[in-house]
Amino acid sequence: MSGIEQFKDQNYLNLQTYRKNGEAIATPVWFVQDGDKFYVRTIAGSGKVKRIHNNAKVQIMPCGQRGEPLGAWVAAQACEVVDEVTFAHVNSLLITKYGETVQTLASQAQERGEKYTVLAIWIE
Q1: Of 37, 50, 121, 124, which one's alpha carbon is 20 to 30 angstroms from that of 6?
Q2: What is the CATH number of the domain that holds 59?
Q3: What's the domain count of the chain?
Q4: What tens digit of pLDDT does each residue of 58-89 get?
């Protein structure tokens, strides 16, 4: 199975972004799917956010918690979402999928002074 179907019922996707020198960096992340888009909530200003600002081309694949492959890499595009309505919708989807742990982690990050942002990802 490849493409968008392989992400059904998965808890993690491996998000591969690229440094300016072309080096690939893969990061397993929680995600939600809404239609043909995937969304990831992450710390604003994190490495993956910076790399996506420099290069929107990414690769994604379903994976286990530690990044172990559960499918095939798929070429995709990604961007940071700054729309508050989408941000709230993604948070709601994350809570539905992963439970209150998502809120606990967000509260802990906020206590540390960290802010979240949302990445939208779509298959090319």
Answers
A1: 50
A2: 2.30.110.10
A3: 1
A4: 999 999 999 999 999 999 999 999 899 999 99
